[in-house]
Amino acid sequence: MNGDDTLSTFFFDQLTGGLTAGPVVSTGGQGANALAVHPSGRFVFVSHGQSNELRRYGLDDAGVLAFEAQTPVGGSPVGVLADPSGRFLFVLNHQSQELQSFSVAAAGALSLVQSVRTEVGATGFSLMRGAPITFESTTGYLTKTTALAIDTLGVSRDGGLAFRSTVSSFTTPVALSSDSWGRVVHSASSTGSFVGRFDVASLALQSSIASQGPIAMEPLGRALFTTPNSGASVSAFPLRRDTGDALAGTNLFLPATALTVKADPTGGRVFVLSSSTGALWQVNWNVQSNALTLDPNTLSTPAPGRDLVVDPFGRFVYAATTDGSLVAFRKNPDGGTLLPVGVYDGGTPTQLSIDGAGRSLYVVVPSQNAIWGYAIDHVTGALSPMGGSQRSEAR
After folding, report:
1. Count of beta carbons in the 10 Å neighbourhood of residue 252
2. Per the omega criterion (within 30 degrees of 0), is the bond before 214 cis?
3. Is residue 175 helix, strand or coil?
4. Under DSSP, is residue 145 helix (H, G, I), strand (E, B) or coil?
């Protein structure tokens, strides 16, 4: 979905991880702002915040989109979400302050089931399934930045919505996530004051930790690592195995301001990228004492950092910097410390992501309105541009 109300298709190569641009279609509406792909893979629904409508596109086996129908919705829709069963679609409308549920017919046609009032400030809606997977167990969570609250809504078999409870939240909740077992919900604040853990059944706040910046989970769920916004430190909070509650943490001061923290998937270490210098720190974590120690081998990037990502197997680390560079590092198999691999042209990189197999690195490049893809050498960690993009290799 693009800023000019067009919808782009990309084809994903499962062998190489490469992305190939496909057809671009005009949505015909105004203010396209969110989309949802139906679980069947046959339909794509796009919400339009200015023309107050939902547009449905058919998606064929070749990935080609074709406009099929439009459905009026409430005022200024800001989000659309498909139920995992494929039977219902939910639309959150900001101006008219309502959440609408629609039933989805076999051919994709929508029929309004119910509309419920959300109050001022509704910003996001998420669904979570408990176990066993039955539609009766589906629960919706609604964040409201103005009311500073999280609502719990029950979703019935026919798609009806009913408010169950409302709990006060900390400042401006803007994001929700649930664990894989359907036990807890985590809510984050846009002001970054802290992250709370909520019980699913009651949505009561169970615990919280101060976190004025990014957070990273230890791969085995034994600790939570945080860095403060505009602060020069990193903290580690041990987590109770039975409840997930954070215990008293330890803090390590760093030589300069930290931007973000990422955990080593192999455990025992985190990587911290600086926002004020070109430093990449390796911080060791002791699981027994929760102590943090700074590795003396501080690595350098050409400029202050923008984002950091670690491959799923902990072999390679990649940093995006403010001068447009992508910097690659690989782990020394002997001692585990990082070694430089190379510096690459990243355009104006702002976000980095690696596929689950660790074969491809994707870079968001706002100045080009594009996502750039790089193939990752599985031995050295070196990057090679994919898809014939006009950009240089190592420099």
Report:
1. 19
2. no
3. strand
4. coil
